[in-house]
Amino acid sequence: MSRYLAALRPLVLVAAALGAVATFAETPSQPEAAAYFISPANGATVSNPVTVRFGLRGMGVAPAGVERPDTGHHHLLIDLDTLPPAGVPMPMDEQHRHFGGGQTEVTLELAPGKHTLQLLLGDHMHVPHTPPVVSERITITVE
Fold this sequence. Notes:
Elements: H1 3-17, E1 34-39, E2 45-46, E3 50-57, E4 60-61, E5 71-78, E6 96-98, E7 105-108, E8 113-122, E9 138-142
Parallel strand pairs: 2-9, 4-5
Antiparallel strand pairs: 1-3, 3-7, 5-6, 5-8, 8-9
């Protein structure tokens, strides 16, 4: 975890414990911006380890903690029916994978069966842009 995330995490945890919702300034996205999957394709049957490649057009990729206009970094949402709430940093858990180093692919292990995957771009503080830059939700089957 980066020093930035290490410093942010206690603040978010304290706010959550107090029942408060910390909101952050909105980071605008470009109107033509789009996140998408290069692979796997929607409906694909794959085996472990699963390599997922991310695409982005209309904006650039920058690591977490680096504040530059028209940039962000990928988050992979696994088996989620809804997007994380706007205005707050995305959770960091098995269903919300962060790629704060600016990575554009990952190799991971998924349990056998059907899974949904979706990409969501986050700003320098892991907060979704406004409007969100999000891919279509795809479904894959892991053998």
